[in-house]
Amino acid sequence: MDQIIVQFLNGLDKGSAYALIALGLTIIFGTLGVVNFAHGALFMLGAFCAVITSKILSASHKIVDATRTDFLGNPMQVDTFYVQDWFGMAAGQTIMDWAVPIAILFAVPVMIFVGFAMERGLIKHFYKRPHADQILVTFGLALVIGEIIKYFFGANPIQTPAPPAFTGSLDFGVFLGYEAQTIMYPYWRLVYFSFSAVIIAAVFAFLQFTTFGMVVRAGMADRETVGLLGIDIDKRFTFMFGLAAAVAGVAGVMYAPIVAPNYFMGMDFLVLSFVVVVVGGMGSLPGAVAAGFLLGILESFASMPVVIDLLPGINQIIIYLVAIVILLTRPRGLMGRKGVMEE
Amino acid sequence: MSKSNFTRRGIMKTGAAAGAALTLPTYLRADGHAGFTNAPGDSEVVLGFNVPQSGPYADEGADELRAYELAVEHLNGGGDGGMLQTFSSKALDGTGILGREVKFVTGDTQTKSDAARASARSMIEKDGAVMITGGSSSGVAVAVQALCQEAGIIFMAGLTHSNDTTGKDRKANGFRHFFNSYMTGAALAPVLAAQYGTDRKAYHLTADYNWGYTTQEAIQSSTEALGWETVNTVLTPLTATDFSSYIAPVLNSGADVLILNHYGGNMINSLTNAVQFGLRDAMANGKQFEIVVPLYSELMARGAGPNIKGILGSQNWDWKLENELGAKYSGTNAFVQSFGTKYGFPPSQAAHTCYVQTLLYADAVTRAGSFAPCAVDEALSDFEFDGMGNGPTLYRGSDHQCFKDVLVVRGKENPENEFDLVEIVEVTPVEQVTYAPDHPQMGGAEASLGECNNGA
Q1: B290-295 and B257-261 beta bridge pairing
Q2: Which of B242, B299, B420 has the CB atom closest to A258's CB atom?
Q3: Residue A5, in any domain of the structure
Q4: Which structural domain, as residue segments, surrounds residue A117?
Q5: By C-alpha distance, which of B391, B433, B386 is closest to B408?
Q6: Which of B241, B268, B417 lies at the smallest CB-CB distance from A70?
Q7: Does the N terminus or the C terminus of chain B have fewer Cβ atoms within 10 A?
Q8: Alpha helices in chain A (DSSP H)
Q9: ipTM of model
Q10: What backbone torsions phi and psi does residue B403 show, to the nearest 5 degrees?
């Protein structure tokens, strides 16, 4: 039972990442009708916002330490951090340690700008083109973004640790009546799940309870009618693209301590997220979130040794298997709307 | 009624045309007169460096390319000569190879067998490369080695650690300087037993591809021989990035050691996940829980950051070797000096093995007096050398595997600088890691090099 609880928690974490990316994909598809294959790259860019913030906060200058030598036998040059020069050793170290949460402040405006630039600079030219063209151009864009990141940061993953206060694991089992150290779960993963839940709730609240959101939802249902009412729906949809980029970005920032960012991490998530969107139902925001958590949890359970022993290889195909079953029984996905992608 | 077209003049014309047509393709290739594929002209010779320039091992590929370029510079008489100064063979004199200036072309393997074969084929057919070298994956190495065997080209393997490269998939035209999974097991297991005791229960997570299988097999068999029990072995997808679902069951499985048969990004992520889940701080069976990473690389250690501290693994070579363990490992400092001066940081073991392979090829050609693969094969087989950083080394003729000391290393607790990532715990003597060519892990008695192929 303890293993099932751990895998359930793992599933919630994976599901959180899937749901956040799928939510952004669905917003873009629902508002602009664009199938955005560059969305995984936006998630990756978010993770690199954490890397960049960490590098900025740990910017240093060299001082020569004549008492030591480097690997070639020359006097050693030692890094001295500017934040420690300015704020003192302890405060400077704390600022560097909290780079990931601080990165959210950096990532939100950056990702909104990137989203605007993508939509105005490239994607708007493909609104009336077939979905296949949109997929090709956005997939190409994802490759370009990935290569740019590789050029500047290299191919290897870059460790971006969580703040010291959130390293280590919580003795989760104690709360459920288990013996100590039976169910240990990393603090940061619990933070990630909680953070995702807040972001998802905030996006839904924004769309549900604000005038702006209501107009956007009306535009998603009938763009022409909203336009005839004198509302510039295109501008609002552009904003929603920026919002979707920001959601993917903050999801990436917070994910950086879980899996060290690298230039192809967006591709890892992209295909899975599209499966999530299709299973949830194209254009359905609740469907995307529900499918994200469902598939995350199933994937986690399928990775348990006892399951792999019983069904070898199931861990590698479970998501696609579930997608096939759901699409055969419910072709529009779990909560898909009639007419979407059916023209 | 038909009329025959055969006349004496017609037959002679047809015969001459057919003969010319059959001869032409051979005549147009330089090898036509030399009897082997891509025989170089008198002024230059082209080598093919086939490394991952994109994909998850691109950083290692970049370091390999740096080493290759340095080797070419030294072969052509540039720079400080590097290991040409310390190499026990004195056949190379800095005038290229057999008087030809060394040129090179590069290819991108993308760490994919198909892409690697395509780029190797292009370098052989379009660029006239007489030797292919490189790699950063055993799957790639095995695939390219087979291609070179068919084409009649020498393959000097770069980074490949699977037993199969010089085991069941060995080829007469292929040579490996790097160590392998068996050697890792033979070197690491006694140190593990000494450090953690002989009463241990191990849980293996293994990358689901060729290298993972042979590494797991090697570590499992060598640790079990010393008394360890294997509790479970789980294959993980090569594409996995979050290993939490595989890590979470480990602590309550009865195991007290986790062995991560992972490499590159897989290892960085699985180790990070293991640390996140508290395995480094946990107790199991009344003992401190331990994590082992059989194959280390400096680039991986850098990627794993502080998570690597205190974790044991094995290496083919380390840039601190000569400074810490003396003149037996001469050549190390010469290479580090050359590489460090040119690029500003110490070379990785991938860079070292690729540099050495290039020099060994050039030396074999020079001693043989020919670029023909079978001549190179003869010159390299059972060749004993020294001064290349690993101590006395044998290129065994029966499987084309190099035999030399193996390092057991540990992630350093208090690094002095960003390059000071591991400490050398022990150097395992070559005798302890040597095995019979027909060892079961190497394909048994059925494994054979086959015949060398000059191509053409």
Answers
A1: parallel
A2: B242
A3: yes
A4: 1-57+87-329
A5: B433
A6: B417
A7: N
A8: 2-32, 39-57, 82-87, 89-97, 99-121, 131-153, 172-175, 187-209, 211-221, 223-228, 233-255, 265-280, 285-302, 305-310, 314-329
A9: 0.83
A10: -120, 125
Q: Using the beta-carbon criterion (under 8 Å), do A308 and B249 form an inter-chain contact? A: no
The encoded tokens of residue A148 equal 């740019």
In order along its 456 residues, chain B shows pLDDT tens digits of: 344 444 555 545 555 554 444 443 433 344 444 689 999 999 999 999 999 987 767 788 999 999 999 999 999 999 999 999 999 999 999 999 999 999 999 999 988 899 999 999 999 999 999 999 998 788 899 999 999 999 999 999 999 999 999 999 999 999 999 999 999 999 999 999 999 999 999 999 999 888 999 999 999 999 999 999 999 999 998 878 889 889 988 988 899 999 999 988 889 889 999 998 889 888 899 999 999 999 998 888 888 888 999 999 999 999 999 999 999 999 999 999 999 999 999 999 999 999 999 999 999 999 999 999 999 999 999 999 999 999 999 999 999 999 999 999 999 998 877 788 899 999 999 999 999 999 999 999 999 999 999 997
pTM reported for the whole predicted model:
0.85
- Is A341 inside a domain boundary? no
| Contact criterion met (CB < 8 Å) for A264 and B252 | no
Residues from chain B contacting residue A318 (CB–CB below 8 Å): none
Q: Concatenated DSSP letters for B192-240? A: HHHHH-S--EEEEEEESSHHHHHHHHHHHHHHHHTT-EEEEEEEE-TT-
| Residue A66 resides in a domain | no
The structural domains of chain B, ordered by start, are 11-179+329-404 (3.40.50.2300), 182-315+406-433 (3.40.50.2300)
Q: How many residues in chain A? A: 343
User: In this structure, is residue A234 part of a structural domain?
Assistant: yes
For testing contact with chain A, the best of B245, B323, B418 (most A CBs within 10 A): B245
Per the CB < 8 Å rule, is B419 touching A71? yes
Domain with A315 in it: what CATH number? 1.10.3470
Q: Do B58 and A6 touch (CB under 8 A)?
A: no
Contacts of A10 in chain B (CB under 8 A): 244-245, 248
What is the total count of domains within chain A? Answer: 1
DSSP helix/strand/coil, A262: coil
Euclidean distance between the first and the last CA atom of chain A, given in angstroms as a whole number: 47
- Amino acid letter for position B115: A
